[in-house]
């Protein structure tokens, strides 16, 4: 018999504390869709994705109805399209338009994988795909793009970094009439995981199965509520313990949904990503968790330490609830998607420099940060290089998803709506790194890479 108190606790988490399954993401391999003709390849891509994913949304809705657990997004990730473009040649944007059409037809929220892995250099198809990203994201609604430009094993491809500085700026310019939304669907990674279910960075890695279900959980509101109920005299060891126990409960729900979706769809269950993913909703903020730990405001001295405690406790608690943990797993700090982060920026307590320090201990990087519209591509490239260096040296995933607000200055606002939220244009250091960026080449892999 289920424990009555456990049932009541779960209902409270869902109804009052914003607990949800952020996404069930179906990863689909497109390697068997390679063809020397781009149009034939696109036709194969459409058919494979449709055949695999046409029941995904219905299955998610059925599981939500059965268990009463909100499943906010149903998504698809695919093999990095640069691999197919390398085989077929032709205009890579044709693949983007195909992905957009099939995403709409199967009813998913986003489709990820308009991607390239260039951490050690460019293979056929990579450079063409990178150059096509602005046009692809401006011409589509559901497609998300990502590029991996570095890793602990390979170092940082600075030619890729330089290119992506230009790509991000051009993507924002081409979607300036839509709040520069294209840049919000583009992520630049170091140490990108192959099984991440979260957008915009999801792609289906070449080492993954033919088809797989990955789950991303949420739950910042649940963690904050648990800390708010705790005795104010508890020390930080006891606070970490509360977070671990709460993360266990959240992950157990993700394990249930993933197992059920896998069974119903007849595909393997991949991973549960433990990441606490905030939303713009009141009470669903990672920043507010940090403040509940004892900070006057997110961004105060002590913020990086509090985030390190949170990230570690979430992983320790979650890993005990599932044998399928993967993806990014930790705590996201996307500024525009987190009500508490936005408030801290507006008050002047949270700066880009502080956010960069926080990325050394969180699970992703500089995420959903709006910067002045006149920021140069070289400055953007410098931001990418710094963030990639943190990931490379610390053997962790880091990423950059920044939005140049074309035509706007510091203090003005962009508003995306939905889960992407909105927020103020942040001040950044505009001193130019152009001399370094123009050198190109590769930053060699660090000593940490020699582990064999």
Describe how the helices and strands are arranged:
Blueprint: H1 4-16, E1 21-28, H2 38-53, H3 56-67, E2 71-78, H4 81-88, H5 93-106, E3 110-117, H6 126-138, E4 143-151, E5 155-157, H7 158-174, E6 186-190, E7 211-217, H8 220-229, H9 236-265, E8 269-273, H10 286-293, H11 303-319, H12 339-346, H13 352-358, E9 366-372, H14 377-394, E10 398-405, E11 413-415, E12 422-424, H15 434-439, E13 442-443
Parallel strand pairs: 1-2, 2-3, 3-4, 4-6, 7-8, 9-10
Antiparallel strand pairs: 1-7, 4-5, 5-13, 6-10, 11-12
Helix pairs in contact: 2-5, 3-9, 4-6, 5-6, 6-7, 7-14, 8-9, 8-10, 9-11
Describe this structure in words.
The chain is of the alpha/beta class. It has 2 domains: 25-190, Anaerobic Ribonucleotide-triphosphate Reductase Large Chain (Alpha-Beta Barrel); 216-449, Anaerobic Ribonucleotide-triphosphate Reductase Large Chain (Alpha-Beta Barrel). It has helices at 4-16, 38-53, 56-67, 81-88, 93-106, 126-138, 158-174, 220-229, 236-265, 286-293, 303-319, 339-346, 352-358, 377-394, 434-439; strands spanning 21-28, 71-78, 110-117, 143-151, 155-157, 186-190, 211-217, 269-273, 366-372, 398-405, 413-415, 422-424, 442-443. Strands 1, 2, 3, 4, 5, 6, 7, 8, 9, 10 and 13 form an 11-stranded mixed β-sheet that branches. The chain is globular, with a radius of gyration of 21 Å.
């Amino acid at each position: 018999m289920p424990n009555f108190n456990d049932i009541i606790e779960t209902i409270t988490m869902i109804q009052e504390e914003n607990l949800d399954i952020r996404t069930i993401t179906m990863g689909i391999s497109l390697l068997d869709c390679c063809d020397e003709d781009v149009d034939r390849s696109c036709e194969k891509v459409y058919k494979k994705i449709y055949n695999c994913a046409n029941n995904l949304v219905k299955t998610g809705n059925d599981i939500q109805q059965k268990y009463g657990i909100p499943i906010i997004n149903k998504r698809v990730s695919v093999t990095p399209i640069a691999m197919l473009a390398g085989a077929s040649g032709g205009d890579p944007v044709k693949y983007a338009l195909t992905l957009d059409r099939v995403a709409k037809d199967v009813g998913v929220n986003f489709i990820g994988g308009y991607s390239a892995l260039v951490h050690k250099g460019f293979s056929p198809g990579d450079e063409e795909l990178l150059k096509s990203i602005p046009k692809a994201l401006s011409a589509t609604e559901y497609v998300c793009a990502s590029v991996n430009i570095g890793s602990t094993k390979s170092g940082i491809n600075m030619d890729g970094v330089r290119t992506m500085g230009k790509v991000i700026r051009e993507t924002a310019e081409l979607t300036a009439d839509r709040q520069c939304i294209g840049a919000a669907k583009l992520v630049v990674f170091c140490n990108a995981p192959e099984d991440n279910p979260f957008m915009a960075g999801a792609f289906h890695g070449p080492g993954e199965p033919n088809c797989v279900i990955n789950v991303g959980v949420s739950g910042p509101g649940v963690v904050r509520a648990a800390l708010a109920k705790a005795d104010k005299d508890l020390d930080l060891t006891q606070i970490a313990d509360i977070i671990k126990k709460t993360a266990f409960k959240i992950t157990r729900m993700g394990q249930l949904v993933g197992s059920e979706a896998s069974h119903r769809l007849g595909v393997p269950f991949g991973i549960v990503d433990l990441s606490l993913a905030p939303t713009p909703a009141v009470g669903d903020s990672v920043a507010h968790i940090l403040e509940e730990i004892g900070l006057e405001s997110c961004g105060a001295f002590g913020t990086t330490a509090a985030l390190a405690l949170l990230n570690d406790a979430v992983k320790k608690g979650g890993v005990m609830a599932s044998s399928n943990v993967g993806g990014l797993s930790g705590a996201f700090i996307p500024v525009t998607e987190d009500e508490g982060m936005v408030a801290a920026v507006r008050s002047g307590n949270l700066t880009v420099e502080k956010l960069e320090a926080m990325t050394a201990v969180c699970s992703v990087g500089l995420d959903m940060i709006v910067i002045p519209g006149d920021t140069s591509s070289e400055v953007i490239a410098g931001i990418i290089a710094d963030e990639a260096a943190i990931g490379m040296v610390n053997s962790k995933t880091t990423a950059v998803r920044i939005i140049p607000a074309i035509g706007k200055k510091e203090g003005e606002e962009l508003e995306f709506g939905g889960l992407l939220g909105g927020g103020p244009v942040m001040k950044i250091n505009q001193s130019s790194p152009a001399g370094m960026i123009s050198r190109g080449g590769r930053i060699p892999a660090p000593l940490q890479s020699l582990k064999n």
